[in-house]
Design brief:
119 residues, mainly beta, 7-stranded mixed sheet, 11 strands, globular
Length: 119
């Protein structure tokens, strides 16, 4: 069973930085495409960053040039470095693992970690 546990959320002032971490159980971590999503009240859930099993990354426009996703396959961890944080980045952040099978994809989710950006 694949389990994901996020950490690193908290409160920060505008312009500050945070790094979120996600540790993943399961033996096939290196084969998973990993993503960070966020959700706040009144807005749909948004995927803000993804790193594929091959190491390719892509970002939502809201995250480009400010956020960096990375992974450490040996530690089974994925990170989201967030800089120049803005009040609109306030949200619950979720780690996601996509496990690919021949005819379907299993989506695994963590419980989330809260980020608050406020002065």
């Amino acid at each position: 069973q694949v389990q994901l546990v996020e950490s690193g959320g908290g409160s920060v002032q505008p312009g500050g930085s945070l790094t979120l971490s996600c540790v993943v159980s399961g033996s096939s971590f290196s084969a998973y495409d990993m993503g960070w999503w966020r959700h706040n009240l009144g807005n749909p859930r948004e995927r803000i960053a993804q790193i594929t099993a091959g190491g390719d990354t892509n970002y939502a426009d809201s995250a480009k040039d400010r956020f960096t996703i990375s992974r450490d396959n040996a530690k089974k961890m994925v990170y989201l470095q967030m800089t120049n944080l803005k009040p609109e980045d306030t949200a619950d952040y979720y780690c996601n693992a996509d496990e690919h099978f021949s005819s379907y994809i299993l989506h695994h989710w963590g419980q989330g970690t809260q980020v608050t950006v406020s002065s």
